[in-house]
Design goal:
The chain is an alpha+beta fold. It has 3 domains: 93 residues, Orthogonal Bundle (Hypothetical Oxidoreductase Yiak, Chain: A, domain 1), CATH 1.10.1530; 177 residues, Ribosomal Protein S8, Chain: A, domain 1, CATH 3.30.1370.60; 43 residues, Hypothetical oxidoreductase yiak, domain 3 (Wheat Germ Agglutinin (Isolectin 2), domain 1, 2-Layer Sandwich). It has 12 helices and 13 strands. The radius of gyration is 20 Å and the shape is globular. The two termini are 20 Å apart. The model has no long low-confidence stretch (mean pLDDT 96).
Length: 333
């Protein structure tokens, strides 16, 4: 079904206000959830909203706790999220990284003790729209095996790289697992198998069944051992720079709370790359789009269809599964 964007925003705001959010924080949090679905990433937008409310009910997310500065070293700052809402903490820390980059050319913010930031790409778009190259990543609970392992030891630790461009920003948003758990749950709800091998069963066989992968928390690392290694290093960097929890420590509580995250911004103007940035990016994109393809396949750059999807959903309404929207509406009663 499709629901008008303004109706989605109003509904989410109403529910958040009932759950202890102040008006301004409810407004921004509703926007971040709606933006994910508006851009076609419902698995980390409206689909996750009931999960977010459940985390509030469990007191894992504290609605009006804000992130605060712990340490400052010029271009680098360390913040404590105080278990506040993950999307708000992430938006605040990316904004601070942007501010630092406008002053120094580079800004780095490490965040400890925060919660799931939901759609990671939101913060890449935030940086790109401010004219900054943005890089951010987070650790998660253990939900992916080390290469050769038979139990979840690594996180699917999402990574975002965003590059501003006049003709359309380049925004890569990817988990370290072949499919995010949000996407796995979307396929499970729709009664579908994954289109490619997505994880392991209990005997180490590659499978496409989202139910089994979710139950065992044995998602397939991207690039096999390479993705497993990259996941480990992202966790290490997030942990040592923030001073917060590592993936294995997050897993000790059996809840995905108290995460560690990193936000990096480079201001294109301050670093003197504005003169040739668009020209070089356009050349790379043109070469990519000229690629020969198999059959009627199309080659796209990361984020290429984002604005097209956003404009379509603004005009026609946001696409949302009927059962998810009914569940959300029940929270507003």
């Amino acid at each position: 079904m499709r629901v008008a964007y303004h109706e989605v925003i109003q509904t989410l705001e109403k529910i958040l206000l009932k759950n202890g959010f102040s008006e301004d924080r409810a407004s921004l949090c509703a926007f971040l959830f709606a933006q994910a679905s508006l851009d076609g990433v419902s698995s980390h937008g409206l689909d996750r909203f009931p999960v977010f409310l459940e985390m509030i009910r469990k007191n894992l997310v504290k609605p009006n706790n804000e992130a605060n500065l712990l340490d400052s070293y010029g271009v680098f700052e360390r913040w404590n999220g105080n278990l506040g809402p993950g999307p708000l903490n992430a938006h605040q820390c990316m904004d601070r990284a942007i501010q630092l980059s406008k002053e120094f050319g580079v800004g780095i913010v490490a965040l400890q003790n925060t919660n799931h930031w939901m759609r990671a790409g939101n913060y890449g778009w935030q940086a790109a729209e401010a004219g900054c190259i943005g890089i951010c990543f987070t650790n998660t609970k253990p939900n992916m095996p080390a290469w050769g392992g038979s139990e979840p030891k690594l996180g699917n630790n999402p990574l975002v790289i965003a590059i501003p461009r006049s003709k359309g920003h380049i925004v890569l948003d990817m988990a370290m697992s072949q499919f995010s758990y949000g996407k796995l749950k979307t396929y499970l709800r729709e009664g579908k198998e994954m289109p490619f091998d997505a994880g392991f069963d209990g005997n180490g066989n590659l499978i496409k069944s989202p139910e089994s992968i979710i139950d065992n928390e044995l998602a397939l690392p991207i690039g096999l051992w390479k993705g497993a290694g990259l996941s480990l290093l992202l966790d290490m960097l997030a942990t040592i720079l923030s001073g917060g929890n590592a993936t294995f420590q997050v897993g000790e509580s059996r809840e995905e709370a108290g995460l560690s995250q990193i936000f990096i911004c480079l201001d294109a103007a301050k670093l003197g790359v504005m003169e040739w940035s668009d020209e070089k990016l356009d050349q790379i994109v043109m070469d990519l789009k000229a690629s020969l393809t198999f059959g009627d396949k199309e080659v796209r750059y990361p984020g290429e269809n984002n604005m097209k999807t956003r404009n379509k959903n603004i005009a026609e309404g946001i696409s949302v599964a009927e059962d998810i929207w009914r569940e959300i509406l029940n929270f507003s009663l």
